[in-house]
């Protein structure tokens, strides 16, 4: 495995100021595509403060500016927010799951920001034993992007459902088996395989907010 540095860092938010900066990135990025979301995304929501969620902040090394963010909620402490809107298959519901939301970057940011944020969420899922990474995609362009990463429709018919935590906008819900991701990417000779699986990026740090899985609580005590 090689080691490579990036022009930015990714880490969990450490305080309210960090969270506000992450919200500003969300507001700018999502507001550019859906102007009605700009004002609603500028403030932290209830999930941002929940123990089941971790918000990642991406900062430019040269300027210190916040340029990207993503949020991860695991199902270790209860159903995911998206599971209030859909029923996941029974087999999936019995396994570790994580929902990725608010993944965004400001305009003009390094092209690798979103890829690195996705890698960070993948590493987080691996570390928390979240086998299924679940996302909502609001349009076909996003669906195609996630399919290229290995996501598949949670329901074969691929119906659109309104997500309350996304302003009631209709979304396709997709999931990826994180345990099989490396093998699948290798077999497909995915162009980002080396970046995600064969390169150590010291600028991606996710360990600060990791939650010990419930089955290991007794061992950690």
Outline the structure in words.
- The chain has helices at 16-33, 38-41, 90-93, 113-127, 140-149, 181-188, 193-197, 217-220, and strands at residues 2-3, 8-12, 53-60, 66-74, 97-105, 132-137, 152-153, 160-162, 170-177, 199-200.
- The strands form 2 sheets. Strands 2, 3, 4, 5, 6, 7, 8 and 9 form an 8-stranded mixed sheet that branches. A two-stranded parallel sheet has the order 1-10.
- The chain has 8 helices and 10 strands.
- Strand 8 (160-162) and strand 9 form a beta hairpin.
- The protein is of the alpha+beta class and 221 residues long.
Would you spell out the secondary-structure blueprint of this structure?
Blueprint: E1 2-3, E2 8-12, H1 16-33, H2 38-41, E3 53-60, E4 66-74, H3 90-93, E5 97-105, H4 113-127, E6 132-137, H5 140-149, E7 152-153, E8 160-162, E9 170-177, H6 181-188, H7 193-197, E10 199-200, H8 217-220
Parallel strand pairs: 1-10, 5-6
Antiparallel strand pairs: 2-3, 3-4, 4-5, 6-9, 7-9, 8-9
Summarize the structure.
This protein is α+β, with helices and mostly antiparallel strands and 221 residues long. It is 31% helix and 24% strand.
The total count of strands amounts to 10
User: What is the gyration radius calculated from CA atoms?
Assistant: 17 Å
Number of helices: 8
Order of helices and strands: EEHHEEHEHEHEEEHHEH
**Strand count, sense and closure of the main sheet?**
8 strands, mixed
Structural class: alpha+beta
Rounded to the nearest angstrom, the distance between the terminal CA atoms is 34 Å
Instruction: Return the average pLDDT rounded to an integer.
Output: 88
């Amino acid at each position: 495995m090689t080691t490579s540095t990036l022009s930015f860092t990714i880490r969990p938010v450490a305080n309210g100021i960090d969270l506000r900066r992450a919200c500003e990135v969300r507001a700018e990025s999502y507001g550019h595509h859906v102007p009605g979301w700009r004002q609603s995304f500028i403030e932290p929501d209830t999930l941002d403060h929940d123990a089941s969620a971790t918000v990642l902040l991406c900062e430019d090394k040269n300027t210190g500016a916040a340029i990207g963010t993503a949020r991860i909620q695991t199902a270790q402490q209860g159903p995911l927010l998206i599971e209030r809107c859909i029923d996941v298959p029974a087999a999936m519901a019995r396994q570790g799951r994580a929902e990725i939301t608010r993944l965004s970057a400001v305009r003009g940011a390094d092209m690798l920001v979103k890829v690195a944020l996705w890698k960070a969420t993948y590493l987080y899922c691996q570390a928390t034993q979240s086998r299924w990474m679940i996302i909502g995609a609001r349009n076909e362009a996003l669906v195609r992007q996630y399919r290229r990463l290995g996501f598949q429709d949670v329901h074969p018919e691929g119906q659109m459902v309104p997500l309350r935590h996304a302003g009631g906008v209709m979304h396709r819900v997709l999931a990826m088996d994180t345990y099989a991701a490396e093998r699948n990417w290798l077999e497909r000779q995915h162009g980002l395989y080396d970046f995600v699986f064969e390169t150590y990026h010291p600028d991606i740090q996710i360990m600060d907010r990791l939650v010990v899985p419930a089955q290991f609580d007794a061992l950690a005590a």
